[in-house]
Amino acid sequence: MIAKKAIGLPLKGLRLAIKSGDTLLQTASTQVTRLKRLLDQQMDNTQAQPTAVRGYLNDAHAGERDVSMSETVDIRELEFKKAPINLIPAAVLIATPIAAAVITPWYLMTHKVSLPVWGAFGFFMTWTGISITAGYHRLLSHRAYKAHPVVKNFLLLGSTLAVQGSAFDWCSGHRTHHRHVDDVMDDPYSAKRGFWFSHIGWMLRNYPSGNFDYKNIPDLTKDKVLQIQHKYYGLWVIAANVGVVAAVGWLLGDVWGTLVLAGLLRLVLTHHFTFFINSLCHMFGTRPYTDTNTARDNFFLALFTWGEGYHNFHHFFQYDYRNGVKWWQYDPTKWLIAGLAKLGLASDLRTVDDATIKHAEVQMQFKNAHKHLDTVTAGGIDIPHALQNFQERIKHEYEAFTQTVEEWQALKAKAVEMKKTEFADRLHEVDDKLKHEYAKIEEKIIEHNNNLKVAFRSIGHKQHAA
Ligand SMILES: [Zn+2]
Ligand SMILES: [Zn+2]
């Protein structure tokens, strides 16, 4: 999520440092790419142009869609294989970890670092990391809450410190990730292309899936502050990472120590902690809410990612301001947003109702139960008595659950209808009644959940119970 242009960020920043207006390098690189394509086409002696084949992205090419689907896929895959290197992002992403690995231990062995400098390291780690999760991710990409301008700008500056691309690039890429999750062609950091690609590889080359057109962020492109951040991104990156960090170092009386720890080391750690969300959070962990994509819930990854480790929940309910939805789940970003709301600095926190969340969990439990039964009965041999009982219980419970869901849907339809037809002065009364009926449905869903837990326990499968 972070990043394609996470890296594109420094790229653009440096462009700006050379010339305001990010067109120079972009134009040159476009020309080189075009020339390369032209040469490739001549050499391959093929009539189909990659741009035309990718016409699914653009209706202007509708007339050229006579290439078969398999040829399209093949040619798009070829584009992936031939993707040119993203020079500046690749240089930054490779050079900074090496520099941090060499300079940090050397500096710590040869210099004494004061406690306040370590404090600055902790502060910048927190500011940068939580700005990505509470700012770029939950506020801007998902609109999960509204923030006071002071909060928004503080998080925007922290996100700029993270060197993960402008808000336009980051959020456009992230919305594409959610929309096309796991698609090898259209998910910018598809986990289906493996750990390396989803972690960092997707930023090292100019892959077709990484070219964002910003059509999916109309709400952000009209934001004046974000426009300025995008336009002068490179300058902002340098000002924040060198100017602000060095200024803090000067105040603490140790400019170089602060630059090494709160600048370089903090930058590299924050990069990879964020990258974990795209890679490891799509590989390791549980799937309590859906198994229709690779996203996982993982407590250990939540520790490194300011609560974003509950990625299975997030992919299923992306507009919820919480990722760790249970009160006990480690999600400092959620706590920060809730705290800001208490102070009047955040509002309109969006949440999915408990019944919907529980419904998703119970559905996954049924799915697991059916999968388990399919496996044990596949051989056609007699199944043990305990499993027969389990099978009966699941069947019975599933029928009851289907009934509850039908009641629930009917209630929702009724609520919509009533709100349309009732007089305004009776809405309160109606809402109270509906609230009571909703509460009863929720109780029933929780009961199904508990019954399933008991059923799973009877065959020794505690792990399936949510
Ligand atoms: Zn994801
Ligand atoms: Zn997201």
Automatic annotation (TrEMBL):
**Pfam family, any one:** FA_desaturase
State the compartments where it is located: Membrane
| Domain Fatty acid desaturase residue range list | 118-339
Q: Which InterPro entries match?
A: Acyl-CoA_DS, FA_desaturase_dom
Q: Which CDD domains match?
A: Delta9-FADS-like (cd03505)
Q: Which residues cross the membrane?
A: 85-109, 115-136, 232-252, 258-277
Which family does the UniProt entry place this protein in?
Answer: Belongs to the fatty acid desaturase type 2 family.
What is the official name of this protein in its record?
Answer: Acyl-CoA desaturase
Organism in which the protein naturally occurs: Psychrobacter aestuarii
